[in-house]
Hints:
5-stranded mixed beta sheet; 21 helices; globular; alpha/beta
Amino acid sequence: MRKQWVFQKIPNQQTVEQLTTDVRVPVTLATILAQRGLSSYNEAKAFFRPDLNQLHDPFLMKDMDHAVHRLMLAMRRQEKIMIYGDYDVDGTCSVALVYHFLREIYDKVEYYIPDRYQEGYGISEQGIRRAVENEVGLLITLDCGIRAIKLINQARKQNIDCIVCDHHRPGNELPPAYAILNPKQEGCQYPYKELCGCGVGFKLLQGFCQYTKQLMEPLHRLLDFVAIAIGADIVPITGENRLLAYGGIQEINQRPRPAWQALLQVAGIKPPLTIEKVVFGFAPRINAAGRIGHADAALRLMLEKDQEKAYQYADALHQKNAERRHFDSSITDQALSIIEADEQLKQAQSTVLYNQNWHKGVIGIVASRCIEKYYRPTIILTESNGKATGSARSVDGFDVHDAIAACADLLEQFGGHASAAGLTLCIENIPKFQERFEQVVTERITDEQKIPRIPVDIVIPLTEITSKLYNITRQMAPFGPGNMRPVFVSENLEIVNQPRLLREQHLKIEVCQNACEPLNAIGFRMPHLYDLVRENQPFRMAYSVAENHYNGQTTLQLEIKDLQLMNE
């Protein structure tokens, strides 16, 4: 699949020169900083040295005062408090964060996470029933609740007040909660809109500490949960998210709790931990608990204080993740075979597939895998409790949530973000939904959105790739959407020695430019580029710079994003 290289605009030259002088970095790096919106020494300092004192006042968030007062009232009245979270990484980390914090100062706290298969996403009737049976007075929902109008009303009738902490897009009607914390809700003046669910939960606790004049340090010690949620939920790592992720990653590397030590071991990850390692190492294993069984298993790991028990919990999640990978691979093969066998499906602008036997826990992953082959908005559906339930994933720039909303009359419920969403509908409505969704996507998707894009920061000669450049760019972390690892392009490259395919899927080459010292480069899951580099023609390469640790030696290595022949 051909990819479009999208080059950043050349920034103001005066700004670049000012940053080069003030920050004392090479012109290449000053250019990248200017492209990311930095224009002064103070801005660069705040970027390279994030400080938690820069966090926004939590009381700028709509309803924060109501939420904090209700939490304090529950404690004064000695009410039972239930922490209710979703079963994914963001949800379980949110519950771990709030439960851990409150348990240190109040003993009438319990948590509840719904079963993906028996209850589905968000607040469930079983969850409300449990709250009633346990005589809960205050329900705090995390990473869910913004669309649970009926069930929150049901809780209210049972004299249970709700504080909703959510970051998903609200519907036209809000639930009758005591307080709603969601920076995306209408009328909320909170300056940062991209918090994850765990981030919203953190703001509630920050507001509580601020109002009760408690020290912030114990709360900051729990930022590891927020960092993992940010990485796993693929929210932008900009603004406040970047501050929270930076602080959380520092916590994990300096004072890792037993859960993280255990996950590092079973996942075979070498410290220090980064957001990328969270995404590829931690998140799949934590998610596997709710995908293959009950998410309680992930929460038990996160709250465990005994190292040996934490290893046992982590190993169990590791095994569940292996099982998940088997389902993921098998169902992806089936889904791709369905598309490839149907010419109309192959030419479509969207993918909507249904199979009643597909495993509900991996359909979101399968949707993402299908997009790797057929780059277009994709929904994978399976049967659950007599309904069709699905996960949607989108391509860069296309709002899949809005496209699903245009089909709302065919759905039982839906919710999510621009890039990912969930939905439930009657099985008999699937053909109509497939037709409508295809029509909506066809009308709205642009030609640019149909081509995978690779953002490129700057074109440089290979001679600029040095340890100094790498060490400075490394300090731009944490990396993620909105602050990706810098991507460079070098042109007129040649292959040194024979290219290799590692495990038949990872491209390994040595490249040079104008007879300079060769550099190692690797393209993970890029066997399709093997024939291109064997042609012995000059090519250009988009890549980022990383370190390779092998046999006790550390060397620089280029991580390939894409290759193109110079004559193309």
